[in-house]
Amino acid sequence: MNFPLFPPAASTIAPQTDLLFIVLVAVSALVLAVIFIPTIYFLIKYRRGRRVDRRMPELPSFKIEVTWTLITLVIFLGLYAWASEVYLKIETPPADALELNVVGKQWMWKIEHPEGISEIDQLHIPIGQNVKLILASQDVIHSFFIPAFRVKEDVVPGRYTTEWFCATEPGTYHLFCSQYCGANHAQMIGQVIAMDPAAYQRWLTQKSPGVTLAQRGAKLFRDLGCSGCHMGNSIVHAPRLEGLYGKPVPLANGQVVVADDTYIRDCILTPQLRVPGGYPPVMPTFQGHVTEDELFQLTAYIKSLATATVEGGQP
Amino acid sequence: MNALQEKLAVEIPAEDYLHCEHGLKSWLLTKDHKRIGLLYLFSILFFFALAAFAAAMMRAELLTPKGDLLIPTDYNKMFTMHGVLMVWFFLIPSIPGVLGNFILPLMLGARDLAFPRLNLLSWYLFIIGGFMALHAIVIGGVDTGWTFYTPYSTTYSNTHVVEMAAGVFVAGFSSILTGLNFIITIHKMRAPGLTWFRLPLFVWSMYSTSLILVLATPVLAMTLTLMAVERIWHVGIFNPALGGDPVLFQHLFWFYSHPAVYIMILPGMGVASEIVTCFSRKKIFGYEFVAFSSIAIALLGFLVWGHHMFVSSMSAYAGAVFSLMSFLVAVPSAIKVFNWTMTLYKGSISLDTPMIYLLGFIALFAIGGLTGIFLACLAEDVHLHDTYFVIAHFHYIMVGGMVTTFMAGLHYWWPKITGRMYPEKLGQLAALILFGGFNLTFFPQYILGFLGMPRRYHAYPPEFQIYNVLSTAGASILAIGYLMPAFYLVWSLRNGKRAGPNPWGATGLEWKTSSPPPKHNFHETPVVTEDAYNYPPLID
Amino acid sequence: MRHAALKVQFDSLEQQHEASRLGLWLFLATEYLFFGGLFLAYTVYHLLYPQAFAEAGKHTNLLCGSINAALLLTSGLTMSLGVAAIRRGASDISALWIGLTILLALAFLGVKGAEYADDIHKHLVPGSAFALSQVPSAQIFFYLYWLMTALHALHVIAGVGFMLIVLWLAKRGKFSPQYHSPVEFAGIYWGFVDVIWIFLYPLLYLLDRHT
Amino acid sequence: MKTKHLVLVWLGLVAGFIATLLLGQWRLGFFYTPVAVFIAAAQAFLVVAFFMEAKYSSRLTWFFAAAGIYWLGILFVLSLGDYFSRAWLK
Predict the structure, then answer these.
(1) Which CATH number fits domain B3-12+23-512: 3.40.50.1000, 3.40.1180.10, 1.20.210.10, 3.40.50.300?
(2) Which ipTM did the prediction report?
(3) B243 to chain C: which residues are within 8 Å by CB?
(4) pTM of the model
(5) A315, CA 20 to 30 Å: which among A195, A214, B65, B513?
(6) For chain D, which chains pass the contact test of at least 3 CB pairs under 8 Å?
């Protein structure tokens, strides 16, 4: 029978939070000793019926109170600063990360690679590479938890959340949904398979369906009729999407937003919310007509147009 | 109290509150705070038994990694039932409803609470709410967890969410009225000479608790209303399809539910101060610090709710603020623990049953509080959030803290409530069993959580099994620790030796009247001339 | 001699009165925290969707809302005059003022009912037949409008009930210049009902009204 | 309390009401709400102080009235803090 005490630590963040954990355990042990040792000593020494000197000396009790309050406070503030610094690292995805899309739905995880590979309840990633997950939920709140990487983030319906990590050790790790999501919450589990970059490349080529995510998005773009207005020589005055992604967009109300994944998502689902300046608010909503997977495909397609130029006609 | 009165009081008082009236009606329509306290005692024990049954089912299921005892939905209904009943129908009313009701007016030297009829109404609201919740469970149960997170609760769950929320809503008004009653009573009904800084610390802690009950519970009521209306109407403000934000629900919910944790632990801290002083025959060390730390917890406790939401997609900056506040709120709790320890110094310590429970409490609360620091650490919480670490932490606070002090207080004031003593040796044994069983149940869950086992899982990977087996074994021992008092306390009602007005030789006005006390508590309004815990100086 | 209205747990009428009045104020504190949840939701979504709120806010019935604001403010005055009268011992005049307050409150409820009928007629009830469904998140505004006004109306009804009890007690000659706590408490409660409407009025009826 | 004072308070309330109504016709846009809430707070103060007689009550009354507002403030400030700062970290 074995009693595991540490989960595998396989990301760049893991050693940092584990060090914090060990220090926390040490501080706790120290505090417990400071409480328990005198308590036990007093219990034995001052047991009723024992003849000991019980005259209470004049203690500077105010000073004592202030001292232990301040000591506690200083230790706490130190821990706070340290933990917050690591947290900001966990919450700030690096710019050079490989972006993968994740859709959570009752009760499975679907992962979309830009190369067009879809996985269910499995996530293949290369080690030594920053990976950023863009998380979306089709129904309720889920949470994407990889204990070995010490990361987790809730997946909230109606918007994107992100989570990032950099795996350090090849291996197969648990993937859990940690936010209660209904009957089969405990079955919403999977595996994270961290691989050497070379093995990962082999896996990519082997599994490649031959159609990238952006190409699937392009097909969808035509099937849903988006291209009717946003492409070619349409009679409708609609914004062109070439070169759009990542650029600032002036809105009709005077604000300026950056055309990121969230903005594109919002424009498809609630087009009236943030209408770009100079265009009539005529686009219909696609709320209920596209799934989260399809939104990812369309976004991937629009992203792929970031470097394209407009053919035929003015923007 | 002069010698003659002392002698009179030892004899069985003919007119005590238990015997002055008879019949069911005299109980169900009573306005006597002591009888209402007993009504609460019976009702919360009933809900505790049901919730404990649900816990037993869960622990049995978790013996094996596969989900083989219950189907997933039933498991989910079990933990929801356990959470809802334990939180709202046992923990929150436990010390305030039972011991607060019974002892607070006695401690203040008052004839009753300020609003006795309102007090009875509180109990009825509690019972109505409780039966609404039970009804929801009987007709099919609820599977949202006690947290009712949207959009699962509003749109996806097909169980009796609205009925359950309505029960909690009604019980919430019971809490509000109890808190209101206590606050006004403490302000307006103190005996002559009983100034604020002569009050027993239990009164300070009840005051802080009541502040939270009064000011946080209405927000819960509104949150549940919004959730229920959204579920019925199919339109609402938490629905992402309309632009709603499910995270707003979490803000509103935890604005109540985090301070609710302090509703559960503050009364326990009050009981602790009473017992530590009584059984070491000493003034509390640093009275003002212990008193104000209760108020500080009530004030700061409202600023920390976001630590339940560090990975909820809340802004990282808001997270940083909530984390800082969470560290700060731990300071007053630490102060209390240090002061209790210092009170033992140079005392005359006697290890009677309440004191054993209480020492157990200090240990468990210290561990629970320190592991709370782990969860307040932003980076660490990312890993530990929603795992068994959290389960272990809050059970150390709520069961190790609140339930242990409830047992301590029940034993401490049992002679006052019933006029009888319980068998001391059995009491001590039960307290030790409880302590051991508790640690065996919940300590392994810290490790489980750190290893990554998520909460609310009815099935789990096999490497987690060993700790689950330990935990279930501990739960069986814990059950014995809870069942023993049920037997010997009932036995003592008829067979216990008569207690007399002050069996512990304690200070405090509640011990200056007969046991059980007369209907209006005191034959003569007492006058207070000294500080709390003014035990005679100890020489050797 | 103990006054007939003095309860056993109190020593004097002053203590009893002060305790009850503090209790009422504390209860009102819970009331505004209860409404506070709704006001928070309103603020959050107003910040997130200012255009939607401005657009949807144009469709509430400004006339009804303004009449009701005037009615409630005036009823606050009549109620206070009723309390002032009982304190002087003029219980008949007090009853008149309280009666007038009840009438104003009923008028408020009447106008509110007519307004609701009009809103329903204009399909301003969130749901599948909602008239402004082309405005994203306008449903959130109207959902809050309905909840907030309905909850306020419930408090108006409770206030009317409170005042009716006070009138009934007054008729049975229960009050005197020494003891008239229930009248005073009805006044305090009614003030609270007033305060809520004072905040609801600009938030629900006056968003982006310029033409 | 004198009838004259109560009528004066009522006139103050009506003035606030008319100001709210008229300002609403102006092109203040989003800034209307804070202005209107400020006027409403002034009106509410009048009602609380005079109609509800807080001005003539014990300090404890003010304490309870203020306690509720303080806790409401906590609810607002910390919740809105989240919504305001969500866009900061990208």
Answers:
(1) 1.20.210.10
(2) 0.93
(3) 45, 48-49, 52, 136-137, 140
(4) 0.94
(5) A214
(6) A, B, C
